[in-house]
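User: Some background: our group keeps a shared notebook of sequences we're curious about, and every so often someone picks one and asks for a predicted structure to add to the entry. Today it's my turn. The entry only has the sequence so far, pasted here. Could you supply the structure so I can complete it?
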Amino acid sequence: MADSPNDPRAFIERLQRQGAGGTGRRFPIPTLLIVALLAFVIGFAVPTPGSVVHVVYAGHVGVKAVWGRVTGEALLPGVYVLNPVSDRIFDIDVRVLPHNFTEIDAASKEYQTVRLTGTMNYHIEPTRAPDLYQRVGVDFVEKVIDPAFADFVKEVVPQYAATDILGKRDEIRARAREALGKNIERYGVTVDDVYLSNITFSPDYQAAIERKQTAQQQVEAERQILAQKSVQAEQAVVEAKGKADARVAAAQGDARANQLLTESLSPQLIDYLRWTRWDGRLPQVTGGSSGTLISIPLPTPEAQPAPTQAGPAPAGAAGPAAIPTPAAGRTPAAPPATRVPAATATPAPTKPSG
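Assistant: Of course. Here's the predicted structure to add to the notebook entry:
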């Protein structure tokens, strides 16, 4: 095994070999040991600027240790002069810091595997930094926070069904913040907030959840279609009722109008309307129970042929009746209708016997 470059005895032996092989002067071993010891004492006793002055920056507090023992209160940001032989100052970050938890396995209420990961924001109380450094050390996150979070997950998650864990994420998060805060506050660490960044299940259960969600979405879609059809049916009923009410209202209006019109009719009004609306033409055929009346228009004097022979008309032969001309301004009266007797049935002749 090669000699270590930091081994004083090996260093001295190399010097002796070099001195023996050269022309230089050989130093005895006790002299070399004395020189090395004096150099060590001088280097330790004579301070450097970095060992005498220490600066505590903003967002930190200093924990002072004298001969390795924590003494006094936390040092606020500033410049401090130290004894380079016995004093040391350790800086503690008191700002809000995030910490990512490792994935933790737990079991749900129905013994389904659940894996949780999260993040916690925390800060150290400045006045309790010396106590935390003395009791736990600077690696308090791995010693205190991680075990507390794992214990919380394994205690709380089994109280929930697997189907409720995702829906009650905020509730679990609030309980985690409260439980972790009570657990680690005795060390001077304050929990600001906890976030559950990821919640996963076993692959089989995850696939079952996805199938269930798909089925629920299909059912919800069918419900929406049914509700839409129900609304459309209600609209059709309302529309039909409105049309029926409109027809009833129109019929009632017509009935009322007819009633008022009927009440307004009088014999004088009927005669007036009859004469004002007559076009002056007579009916040609009128039927009746006693027979058929046929109106035969009489020939006018201009339409009669001239007599072939002159002389007086035989006695008993009457000329055509004169048709009176209606006076101006008056409607001519209808000519009298000539009654034509109804045809009678003639009995058929009977054949004599024998």
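Suggested note for the entry: The two ends are 179 Å apart (CA to CA). Residues 247 and 253 are 10 Å apart (CA to CA).
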